[in-house]
Design brief:
It contains five helices and no strands. By secondary structure, it is mostly helical. The protein folds into two domains: 55 residues; 66 residues. The chain is flat.
């Protein structure tokens, strides 16, 4: 319960700081009713309300994962951050196949199915995003295809 109360307090304080910074936004005389100043204040008010509710009605104390599980979560976080940085220079297919394969291996530690999952997700998502949704994805690094 104490962790929820601390989290609620942090959310409330951050939301109040967000509201305070939103009040400093300069608006012109031609702005709409929910403009550049009002909308952030509304978002901050909702966040502050949620933080207060979490403080007043906390959940029972959670069961925190062990060190091994926390290490797996940290590894997944590192993989996803590296994936985000690798997308632009390496294109979509290679980083997606590597990241999906590593995360699939983490779920079920069998190398061949994990590699096939990574390749399948990479190709399948590329087809969906590029051709079905019309996104401007680059498949490989620009120098590879001429």
């Amino acid at each position: 319960m104490i962790s929820d109360r601390i989290f609620g307090l942090v959310v409330t304080l951050v939301a109040l700081a967000y509201i305070a910074s939103a009040t400093q936004i300069q608006t012109s005389f031609l702005s709409d009713p929910v403009g550049s100043k009002t909308f952030p204040i509304l978002i901050g008010a909702v966040a502050a309300l949620c933080g207060v509710i979490v403080m007043l009605r906390p959940d029972p104390d959670p069961q925190w994962p062990g060190l091994r599980r926390l290490g797996a979560i940290a590894f997944a976080l590192v993989v996803l951050v590296a994936y985000a940085y690798a997308l632009k220079p390496m294109g979509f297919l290679i980083p997606t196949a590597i990241a999906a394969g590593l995360l699939a291996y983490q779920i079920s530690p069998r190398p061949v199915p994990a590699a096939l999952t990574g390749l399948g997700l990479s190709l399948g998502l590329f087809v969906i995003f590029k051709y079905a949704l019309g996104l401007g994805l680059v498949a490989f690094p620009k120098g590879w295809l001429g």
